[in-house]
Amino acid sequence: MTVEEYNDCVQHYADNVYRFVLKNIRDEEKASDIVQDAFEKMWRHHANVDGAKGKSYLFSTAYHVLIDHTRREKHSVRMEEADLQEHSHERQYSDLQEVLHLALEKLPEDQKMVVMMRDYEGYSYEEIGEMTGLSESQVKVYIYRARVFLRKYIGKMEVVV
Fold first, then answer.
1. pLDDT digits (tens, 9 = 90+) for 22-53
2. Where is the RNA polymerase sigma factor 70 region 4 type domain positioned along the sequence (predicted)?
3. 103: domain range?
4. CB neighbours of 51 closer than 8 A, spacing ≥ 6?
């Protein structure tokens, strides 16, 4: 990757990477730090990065930095071990976005990342697999499990609305 290609990546993808990280951790300072770390790692390895794959390399690096950061801060609970009754609610509430964010926080980090990449950012299964290092079928499994959990957590839309 040349210096010009690196600068193009910064110019074209910095906002997208920041938005992606911010949606996952909702802390502007930490998101900025993670994005900066991702660009720093990309710069340190720019000689080994193919310029055409700069976007994938950047998002993959940001994803891994984000995972490392969240693992250091908290332990995630596996979906199979989670007590769904403890995390569900029956109250009536009208702020759908807040309910969805609360539900997303309950997901294991890997599932949260792939569902955010797919549903919020619009990446294909193949692109998500490249960025995360997961196989395409594993990405599909994680997204399926996350959506099942979200459906159970949120419940019927009539209750939420």
1. 888 878 888 888 888 888 888 888 888 887 88
2. 98-150
3. 92-160
4. 1, 2, 5
> Burial code of 39-56, b = ≥16 C-beta within 10 A, e = fewer?
bebbeeebeebeeeebbe
If you search the block for the tokens 């196989």, which residue do you land on?
135
Torsion of CA 154, 156, 160, 161, to 10 degrees: 140
The verdict on pTM exceeding 0.70 is: no
Average pLDDT for the chain: 80
> Is the pLDDT confidence value at 86 over 60?
no
Q: How many residues does the chain have?
A: 161
Please tell me the number of Cα atoms within 13 Å of 145 on its side-chain side.
21
Flag whether pLDDT at 159 surpasses 80.
Answer: no
Residues 59 and 24 in one domain: yes
Are residues 108 and 85 part of one domain? no
Q: Is the C-alpha dihedral spanning 119, 157, 25, 114 positive or negative? A: negative
